[in-house]
Design brief:
Layout: H1 3-10, E1 18-21, E2 35-38, H2 56-60, E3 101-103, E4 105-106, H3 116-119, H4 124-132, E5 139-141, E6 148-149, E7 155-156, H5 162-171, E8 175-178, H6 181-188, E9 193-196, H7 207-215, E10 223-226, H8 235-247
Parallel strand pairs: 1-2, 3-5, 3-8, 5-7, 8-9, 9-10
Antiparallel strand pairs: 4-6
Helix pairs in contact: 4-8
Length: 251
């Protein structure tokens, strides 16, 4: 969510910008990149910052005497502050894609490289109970099909391409779910979002909590972060917070 803003700002100083990444990320660089080269690597079982199994040294040999910036945890590189980045809103609003609530019911399997990701899933029973209690609201589910869940009775929009997801988010009143990349994306689509996480997610300089409020929310999109009940709040608690959030207009 941050890296594309930095590369966009930096691209102003170069004649050509080539971006390597997953095909699903191409949409975020379309407005400025000279070329996007899709790189198929599986890093779901590690962190979001390492291309698992990618030959960095071999890849870099083609760029002798050319500036290269690599974003991953091996370098210890920390992105600059917001004033060194250039962000744009994503998603074109469309009345036909408007929902009251968009849910990202992450359902990460037990991955060998990063088992803690599974512990952040909200149970399918909780999602079922919450969505069953939202009578009168138009609800849709988004996400990668094999990594997310669509509760019964909601419109299943999982598997949409990135541009379509951004359009749904930009058209809708609210997005909810436990902390995830898609919840950060909501901020760049100017979609008010309600997110929950561990009360210990603060960390250095505010950690993940501060990302939602500031560093990964450059457009100042309305957001409410729930930490009181950690990763596993009750459906009743989330429902109450959601209705309050909607009644306040996402404030």
């Amino acid at each position: 969510m941050q890296w594309q803003g930095y590369v966009r700002q930096l691209s102003r100083f170069y004649d050509k910008t080539i971006v390597y990444g997953r095909g699903s990320s191409e949409f975020f660089y379309r407005d400025f990149a000279s070329e996007f080269r899709e790189t198929e690597v599986d890093s779901w079982d590690t962190t979001a910052y390492v291309l698992n199994g990618f030959d960095y040294a071999g890849w870099a040999q083609q760029f002798k005497d050319v500036d290269i910036l690599v974003a991953d945890e091996r370098t210890g590189y920390e992105l600059p502050l917001l004033f060194n980045q250039d962000f744009i809103p994503f998603g074109k609003p469309d009345k036909e894609k408007a929902y009251d609530v968009v849910v990202h019911a992450r359902s990460i399997p037990d991955l060998g490289g990063n088992r803690k990701k599974k512990t952040r899933n909200w149970s399918t029973d909780n999602w079922d109970a919450l969505c069953a209690s939202l009578a009168g609201l138009k609800v849709a589910a988004v996400g990668i099909p094999e990594l997310s869940y669509a509760p019964p009775g909601v419109v299943d929009l999982r598997g949409l391409d990135t541009g379509q997801v951004c359009s749904v988010l930009a058209s809708s009143r609210c997005c909810i779910g436990p902390s995830s990349g898609l919840m950060h994306l909501a901020s760049l689509c100017r979609t008010p979002h309600l997110v929950w996480m561990s009360p210990r997610a603060g960390g250095r300089f505010g950690g993940t909590l501060y990302r939602y409020l500031r560093t990964w929310n450059p457009l100042a999109t309305p957001v409410k972060v729930l930490t009181e009940m950690g990763w596993h709040p009750s459906p009743e608690y989330v429902r109450e917070e959601l209705h309050g959030f909607l009644d306040a207009g996402g404030e």
